[in-house]
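Fill in residues.
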């Protein structure tokens, strides 16, 4: 027996966080058969989706044992200022909103690196948290593009901060 649900709730009755229908296909298990649940998540299409993604991601970051201290204690991030900048950055990248973001993100990170050396492991953890946030909330071509863009940022920036060609903060030797 198959049951298909088209409601503003998941299989447990929880509403979709952005109020869109959640579709699920449930197969009741029969002897000797595999049971599965397939749930289709929305793709990233709206600024509200970006906000949900970024809010979810940074909640993980703030509480993360590997990189949380960099944001909370070293950078002392002002979240009320930082989050809107990140919404604009990701709207620019994913929703083609050319007017959303103007900035120089690499310089902000070089300034942070001067306070505390950023390492490849920090970028790897950032990427893992970002991609897991995307996977929890979304699926589709824009969601895949978000994960690719985050990967490209991480892989492009790592050698600038860690390794033989990295920028060495003043007063430190590599």
């Amino acid at each position: 027996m198959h049951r298909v649900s088209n409601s503003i709730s998941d299989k447990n009755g929880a509403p979709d966080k952005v109020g869109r229908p959640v579709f699920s296909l449930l197969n009741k298990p029969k002897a000797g058969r595999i049971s599965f649940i397939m749930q289709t998540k929305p793709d990233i299409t709206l600024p509200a989706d970006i906000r949900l993604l970024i809010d979810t991601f940074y909640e993980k970051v703030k509480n993360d044992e590997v990189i949380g201290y960099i944001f909370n204690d070293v950078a002392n991030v002002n979240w009320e200022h930082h989050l809107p900048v990140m919404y604009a950055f990701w709207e620019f990248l994913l929703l083609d909103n050319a007017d959303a973001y103007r900035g120089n993100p690499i310089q902000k990170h070089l300034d942070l690196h001067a306070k505390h050396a950023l390492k490849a492991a920090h970028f790897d953890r950032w990427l893992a948290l970002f991609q897991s946030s995307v996977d929890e909330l979304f699926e589709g071509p824009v969601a895949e593009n978000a994960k690719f863009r985050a990967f490209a940022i991480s892989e492009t920036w790592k050698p600038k901060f860690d390794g033989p060609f990295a920028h060495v903060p003043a007063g430190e030797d590599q």
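The chain has two domains: 2-40, 47-161.
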